[in-house]
Amino acid sequence: MLIRPLTTTDIPAAFAISCAAGWNQTETDWAMMIRLNPETCFGMECEGELAATAVLTCYGQRLAWVGMVLTAERFQRRGFARALLERVLLEADVRGIRTVKLDATEQGEPIYARLGFVAEQRVERCLGRGGGAGAELTGVPGDLDARAFGADRSALVRNLGSALVCEGGFVQRRAGVRARYLGPCVAEDVAAAGRLVRAALATDAGLWFWDVFAEHRDAVALASESGFAPVRRLMRMYRGKPLRGEESLVYGLAGFEFG
Fold it and tell me: Which is it for the CA torsion 43, 44, 49, 51, positive or negative?
């Protein structure tokens, strides 16, 4: 067994593992994660194969995010995920990162709790269909995202592709294996958020995922009014110093793997 950094040559194997688990990430997503975090994307190699993965996305020293904790089915129950988690947390400590967060499934919560993570709040993944009419919005996101998120993730926002921008907010969207993904969506009020969401959903009439904070009533109501319903519920957890942004501005998350 060998823990090592992931490289671009690992993308097909990593993508196969996430697809087998029913996750939504594409090969493009994997390539972006490795490009943004070349030293903190880790894999467990066993019997000459990529057996498991874990990614630490660093937003400076203020915050890092754990995602893509996956083990190929034939290598499960060997402690690979736990070993990779310990490796990424060690990396966070060595780098002096003050807060580490992740979105945990119900099965994962007790595992993360034993590693020092504390529950913060519930997040919901909603599923719905696109279509309808929306204005054509283009522009460059301002600095609203750092306020909303609590840390600077401008490098991620730039790499997620073009944004739809209006006065008071922005939204991004990207392709997925199972559905298109709506988010992040950051807006100063629900009216701006609604305008952004309608514009995004009008670009594709197929299935969409949309992640929201369960406690954000306006975001939950907007998702429901747009025909979306919860299909998964996870617990956002943190390790280290508590850190919250201006979450009233967040109408859509960037994804379980990014925050």
Answer: negative
Residue 242 has pLDDT above 90, yes or no: yes
Enumerate domains of the chain plus CATH numbers.
2-97 (3.40.630.30), 123-252 (3.40.630.90)
Distance set, CA 49 to CA 1, 9, 29, 45, 169 (Å): 10, 12, 21, 5, 44
Rounded distance between C-alpha atoms, residue 229 and residue 199, angstroms:
19
Neighbours of 90 (CB within 10 A): 11
Q: Tell me: the pLDDT tens digits for 58-103?
A: 999 999 999 999 999 999 999 999 999 999 999 999 999 999 999 9
Peptide bond into 184 cis (omega under 30): yes
Residue 3 phi/psi, 5° resolution?
Answer: -95, 130
